[in-house]
Amino acid sequence: MASTLEYTKLTFPLNTGDKIPAVGLGTWQSKPGEVREAVKVALQRGYRHIDTALAYGNEKEVGMGIKDSGVPREEIWITTKLDNTWHHVVEEGITSSLKSLDVDYVDLYLMHWPSSTDPDDKKKHLPDWNFVKTWAEMQKLPESGRVKNIGVSNFAIKNLEILLNDESCKTVPAVNQIELHPNNPSPKLVTYCKMKGIHPTAYSCLGSTDSPLYKNKDLIELAEKKGKTVQQVLLMWGLQRETSVIPKSVTASRIEKNFELDGWELSDDEMNKISAMPERFKVCGDAWLPVKVFFGDDE
Ligand SMILES: NC(=O)c1ccc[n+]([C@@H]2O[C@H](COP(=O)([O-])OP(=O)(O)OC[C@H]3O[C@@H](n4cnc5c(N)ncnc54)[C@H](OP(=O)(O)O)[C@@H]3O)[C@@H](O)[C@H]2O)c1
Question: Is residue 56 flagged as an active site residue?
Answer without folding.
Answer: yes
